Amino acid sequence: MAHLPLVPVLVGPTGVGKTAVAAEIARLRPVTVISADARQVYRHLDIGTAKPPPALRAIVPHVGIDLIEPGERYSAGRFAREAAVWLEQVRAAGREPLVVGGTGFYVRALTDGLFQEPPLDPPRRESLRAWAARLPAARLAHWAARLDRGFAGGGRQRGARAIEVALLTGRALSWWQREARATGAMRPWYIHLTLPRDGLHRRIAARVDGMLAAGLVAEVRGLLEGGLDAGAPGLDGVGYREVVAMLRSTLPASGLRDAIVVATRRYAKRQETWFRNQLRDQTSDVRHQTSEVWTLDATESPVTLAAKILERWQTVNTAA
Prior knowledge:
This protein folds into two domains: 6-114 and 183-319, P-loop containing nucleotide triphosphate hydrolases (Rossmann fold), CATH 3.40.50; 116-180, Histone, subunit A. It has 13 helices and six strands. The chain has helices at 18-28, 54-59, 76-92, 104-112, 122-134, 137-147, 156-169, 173-179, 197-214, 216-225, 240-247, 256-283, 302-319; strands at residues 6-11, 31-35, 62-63, 96-101, 187-194, 292-297. Strands 3-2-4-1-5-6 form a six-stranded parallel β-sheet, sandwiched between helices. The chain starts with 5 loop residues before the first strand and ends with a helix.
């Protein structure tokens, strides 16, 4: 692992301010942001995924955004393979990579390596996918957790994948990820942005208000009117599924804002739990002896945080 480059990885829950901090870092260093966000890979899903604004992306190069159409599937494994190529391209262009994101499985796939998946029988796999697609979300999560004690949640796609791997291989997906891993593409230096709960909740509420004012409902309505299925991958994310429910009259319009706020808070809590536990488990691995998790209070301004990160980055990078 020593020959692999050390790369800063900026993580934290939704709404904590990762994009703003990355933008300030980019004002001081020639970085290219590698987005590790499972929602921002979808084209046309702009408002509800809080993609970096076009003005910022015109100044700071970003990769990992707008890769596929809503309705398509994009796995952590595919992200890791493609991100490994992006890392090389960024360095070849004379820039520095900065991984930014809130999707823990994407981060782990890139830094910890892909597991070698056994061959899965295609007809049986498709049959299982069709069966899983008919299950209510709670029931799907129930079966995934029963078949894989390491299942940490994360939506219908992850639940369906946990089920199919467990049933078709006889071993849980978490087992394969733990026992059949290959080498990662980089060594991570984690900067974990956190906020006190009340502060994060205020930012989440303001963010939801901003999304609704920017036209989140119109964004979803346009996709549905264009023929996208209401249950398609992409529309099952936080914010989008609540708008879909409202447009299908299963959620009153008056309750939309609060429903999104509550769902986002729950999602942020799951993210925080993942980063707090999984990153530290990962850095105890012998292959990540030089990794570090630096928890940073994000109540300070993005300018101040960026300066602190770059100052410490000089020390960490020299020591590596």
